[in-house]
């Protein structure tokens, strides 16, 4: 924004100079002042020489002629009256008329400039004897606007741009701080209230941002307390109902009641976990994301799960051995990422749990995109999910008929997506449709 404002200011200053030059500079003035005076003086001398006897006048004018100038005495003018123009011609006409006392019809002037050659100034003066002195000279042509611009533009522009640049940095500093704070808040980080500095408009926007962040924090805290209180209050009646269910004599009815109460207990526990907002309690720090995946794979391998991991960044590649459930790593430099490690690991763990539970194994791949963002894919070999249900599985306590969701009534995917979005990322599910492949693929995109 600073560069754009400076460029706009510079354009305005240059335009103002050009407009001023157009208004001040006489139209058609192209001959240097000294050269114009010399041309007029030479023409006047040639007119006086023409007052001599004809033979002497012709000889004197011939001797005065050289390669650049030519003077002749002819019975007729060599300039058509229609060729007369304004500008320098008017200045020359006024001077010669005043100096020689000639009437307007006794003086003709024409200035012609070739595209790739010198300019020629032709002056025709009528003598008292009725003859015409025809002169042709090469004046010095100058661009009158170049010299003042070379001085006025740097002198008037550079100090203005320097002062404006210093003030723009001061004015835009609160805006840049606000943009950085908004980016951190979008990732779920805790941001201290921004100081109210800068112009009035910037202070008002900063105050509105601080108030918005305070209200969001209060809303999340109120929601968390409400859900935690409801879940805590439900535990007591569920426990009481379970004790009473144990006293039921009908075995089938007792088992059905206990199974339902167990499901209610799990739902309450999952609700408490979902309400616990880790994004606002864990400190954001920089970690090696590849090491985080490796640690996650080792934990699942110790539980006997089949997990494969591939991490690629230039020459770096980490592969999880399916047969031995051991991690083999070849490091070619870290892959740093600023995040809340526990929060992010929890989301990835939920996705891996779903993959090994419903798809027999999990295959994770981590790669860095050209724009610096990170992409994590979690594949399984399960039956997949119908296209119309891919978004529904993110809703809390959703049951699906397919085999992969038979006993799933928790908040695993909802928590995973909440964790990813708290980092400013995106989580999507899609079925693998490539030849020879089947199963579900969870696609995670994390910003740079």
TrEMBL record:
Its EC number is 2.7.13.3. Residues 63-83 are annotated as: Disordered. Residues 169-221 form the HAMP domain. This is histidine kinase. Residues 65-83 have a biased composition (Basic and acidic residues). It comes from Herbaspirillum aquaticum. One of its GO terms (cellular component) is plasma membrane. PANTHER family: SENSOR HISTIDINE KINASE ENVZ, SENSOR PROTEIN CREC. It is found in: Cell inner membrane. It holds the Pfam family HATPase_c. Residues 229-448 form the Histidine kinase domain.
């Amino acid at each position: 924004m600073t560069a754009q404002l400076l460029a706009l200011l510079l354009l305005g200053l240059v335009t103002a100079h050009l407009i001023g030059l157009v208004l001040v500079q006489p139209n058609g003035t192209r001959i240097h002042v000294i050269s114009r005076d010399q041309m007029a003086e030479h023409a006047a001398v040639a007119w006086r020489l023409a007052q001599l006897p004809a033979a002497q006048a012709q000889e004197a004018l011939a001797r005065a002629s050289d390669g650049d100038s030519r003077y002749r005495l002819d019975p007729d003018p060599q300039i058509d009256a229609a060729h007369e123009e304004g500008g320098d011609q008017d200045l020359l006409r006024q001077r010669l008329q005043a100096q020689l006392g000639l009437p307007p019809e006794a003086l003709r002037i024409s200035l012609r400039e070739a595209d790739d050659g010198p300019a020629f100034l032709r002056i025709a003066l009528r003598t008292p004897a009725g003859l015409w002195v025809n002169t042709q000279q090469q004046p010095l042509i100058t661009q009158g606007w170049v010299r003042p611009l070379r001085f006025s533009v740097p002198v008037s522009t550079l100090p203005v741009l320097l002062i404006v640049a210093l003030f723009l940095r001061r004015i835009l500093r609160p805006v840049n701080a606000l943009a950085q704070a908004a980016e951190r808040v979008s990732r779920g980080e805790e941001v201290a209230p921004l100081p109210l500095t800068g112009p009035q408009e910037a202070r008002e926007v900063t105050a509105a941002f601080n108030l918005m962040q305070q209200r969001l924090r209060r809303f999340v805290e109120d929601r968390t307390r409400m859900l935690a209180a409801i879940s805590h209050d439900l535990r007591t009646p569920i426990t009481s109902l379970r004790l009473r269910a144990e006293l039921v004599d009908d075995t089938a009815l007792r088992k059905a009641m206990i199974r339902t109460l167990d499901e209610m207990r799990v739902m309450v526990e999952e609700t408490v976990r979902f309400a616990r907002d880790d994004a606002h309690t864990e400190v954001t720090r920089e970690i090696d994301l590849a090491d985080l995946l490796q640690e996650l794979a080792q934990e699942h391998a110790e539980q006997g799960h089949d997990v494969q991991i591939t991490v690629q960044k230039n020459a770096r590649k980490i592969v999880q051995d399916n047969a031995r459930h051991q991690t083999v790593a070849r490091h070619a430099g870290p892959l740093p990422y600023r995040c809340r490690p526990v929060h992010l690991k929890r989301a990835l763990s939920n996705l891996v749990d779903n993959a090994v539970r419903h798809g027999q194994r999990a295959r994770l791949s981590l790669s860095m995109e050209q724009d610096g963002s990170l992409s994590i894919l979690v594949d399984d070999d399960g039956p997949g999910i119908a296209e119309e249900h891919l978004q529904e599985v993110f809703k809390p306590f959703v049951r699906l008929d397919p085999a992969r969701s038979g006993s799933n009534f928790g908040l695993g995917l909802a928590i995973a997506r909440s964790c990813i979005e708290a980092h400013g990322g995106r989580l999507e599910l899609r079925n693998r449709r490539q030849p020879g492949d089947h199963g579900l693929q969870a696609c995670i995109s994390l910003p740079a």
